What does this fold into?
Amino acid sequence: MVPRPEFARLAGLMLVLLLGAAAAPGQNETSKTAKAARALAEKAKAEKDSADSELAKLTAAAKAAAARATSAEAAAASTIVERDAARKRLEEKTAAASGAAERAVAARGEVKKALAEQTAAAKNRAKKTAAATKAERTALAEEAAAAIAALAKAGTNEVAAKKALAKKAANARKTVIARKAAEAAEKDAANERISAARAKAATAAAEVASAKLLLKQRTAAVEVAIERATMARALAIGGLKPLARTAWSRDKARHLLDRAGFGGTPAEVDRLFAMGPYRAVNHLVGYHGRPSTDLAFDVSPPERPASFESRLVPAERARFARARQAQERRQQAKLRTWWLRRMVSSQRPLEEKLTLFWHGHFAVNYRTFYLTYILYQQNQLFRGRAGDNFGALLHGIVHDAAMLRYLDNNRNTKGHPNENLAREIMELFAMGEGKGYTEKDIREAARALTGYGYDPWSAHFRFSASRHDPGKKTIFRRTGNFAGDDLVDLILRQPATSRFIAKKLFAFFAFENPDPDVVETLARVLREHRYDLAPMLENMFLSEVFFSERAMGTQIKSPVQLMVGSIRTFGIENVDYAAVDRSLQGMGQHLFEPPNVKGWDGGRAWISAERILVRYNAVAQLVGASRGGGIDVVRMLEGRPFASAGEVVDHLARVALSTPLHESKRRELVASLGDLPPSSKWAARRREINRKLRALLVLLTSIPEYQIT
It folds into this structure.
């Protein structure tokens, strides 16, 4: 662009040229004037070239400014969506300004071209004639002035375009600055919100921690209150001294679950331990509040022989009888496996453990009558009255078809009494051999039980008045027209009854041959509660003596405890219960077929040279079986970090054993396991690791320590 002073100077020189040419007379003057005009034109051209150069620089600067503005706009557009719209508007305006600048440059070129043409024409006219008219000079001056004005206007437009472009760039910079300021403000606000949220979270965490602490304190206070209440209750009922809350441990929780049930997985032991001793015992004894196992068994009363069978020859009648007996044996096998499934799956383990106890206490043998239905009814009687009331259970027994059939009370009639049931009730079921009764009491009791029988086809109790002896009887020095239920009430009044039941229950759950004062204390609790079993069981399971060294880890597992306990402890799935049933028979505990009316002897009687091998092999087949994939030991140990074989052996020993593992045996087991990668790498070698761990379990369950609980 040509500066304004230069425009004025150029215009003056051109006017001087024109006026001088008009005033100079003669050809010489004209020649001089032409030379001066050429010089002036050359000078004007040089100044024009200088102005062009200046204009090019300014145009380049304008374009650089436009480029910087565009760059600023691009940077601004990258922040948020709103700046995209601003950039678009800026680009449109910049394009308009650029168009204006281009038009100004084009106009300037046209002016230059017109000026050059006009200058050339002036030179030609000066050469041709020295005497130009005033009108021509005036026209030339006007044309020059117009050219100068056009050039000035073009310069003015370019300046305006540059100013507009600079203004837009400044606005863009302001927009960027404003946007950055807004972003900074938004970031500060977000930081403030985050800080506020963190402060709120910290406050909430502090409140939660405070609440947890308060809950812990209140829980501890509740536990102390429960402990005091338990101590006071034990003192009030004259019961055994309860275990102190501070003496509770995971080993004691495991002992309680083993004895009051059939053991459990490590997770189940942990849950029981977390309850504390008082709630744990209440949870096990107060099982009626939890749903019973929904495991149905479909069995029907025995079928009457078809009428035509009586007309058959003896061999044919025998064939039909054998067929019915074979069907009964199949039903009986199903009954045994059904009960085993209940023991394993029940959420009320004490219920099934007591059912097993009463099954051995009120023993009957299936082989004496081959009637599955009445044994199923008796099993349900034991389950329904298991932890209920011993008096109600004893009344149920004198009405029970299986017991009446087993002890021949269906043959006990007026004038021909049968003493079997009367004798066993006193001697084995309620009072103990030779404890508080005489032979005369037995004979009189047999008379009271006359007429107590059952319908062989419905298996329901049936009282026959015609077969009952209604005469007076003297039992325990009391005289009256006693019947069978009166006899039960008389037996329950005898002190020997509560002692006998208390001792037998304690021996089953704790240890044999307890001290007399322990027996007397539990008997008193039983009498004080009218033979309700729950208070006595609760007092026994909470007592110090139940968790004493004499009790923990000293009881030989019965075959049922061994097999059912293994399934529950290791969480074994896909169990072949028929195989388990066969193993139990080989170990000497054939369910529904105890050896005699006394039931199973238990204790050391479970162990013999022959039976111990059966026990080892049965458990080995159970824990090492590949049927259904066997035990997934890897899954059982998931979530626990193990860095070495020794850590795995130590953990599984705590799971399986009630007593510490001897160090020499531990070294053997670690050596048998061999190299074992850290547990974090087991998933990739799951099958191989499971095989090694199952082999370890087989060895672990084959040591003598596994046979006791």
The chain has a mean pLDDT of 85. Residues 4-200 form one domain.
